[in-house]
Amino acid sequence: MEVHIPELTKLLTQVDLLSNQLSRMERLFFEKQDKPFLTVTDVATELRLSDYTIKAWINKGRKHPQTRKVIKLNAVKTDGGHYRIKRKDLETFNELFTSK
Question: pTM above the 0.90 mark?
Fold first, then answer.
């Protein structure tokens, strides 16, 4: 079996880069898990939605598909006018809409 050193070096470099990216992603994931309060952008990123959608859930609520009741996402408004969402409140809100 013939091994080409430049190709092997290139592959090892790519593996190393991917490993570093994965480590960074894992750190970010666990940092967010430990954050007691999340920003609107944190929530939007985590759920793959827009900031606008999250703000709408906070201000106007979301209609539950079975009960048709409008449920708002609990949030605290900072002195600067930004919202902060407790992780537990987000989890509770998500469970209402993901449970069967």
Answer: no
Contact criterion met (CB below 8 Å) for 42 and 32: yes
- CATH number (domain holding residue 52): 1.10.1660
Closest Cα to residue 85, out of 27, 63, 51?
51
- The Cα-based distances of 79 to 15, 35, 68, 71 in angstroms read 46, 20, 33, 24
Domain ranges, residue 57: 35-100
Q: Which two tokens stand for residue 46?
A: 């985590």
- Encoded tokens for 27: 């750190």
What is the total residue count of the chain?
100
Within 13 Å and on the Cβ side, how many CA atoms surround 66? 5
- Residue 99 is predicted with a pLDDT of 63
Same domain, 9 and 42: no
Specify which residues 71 forms β-bridges with.
Answer: 62
pLDDT score of 9 more than 90 = no
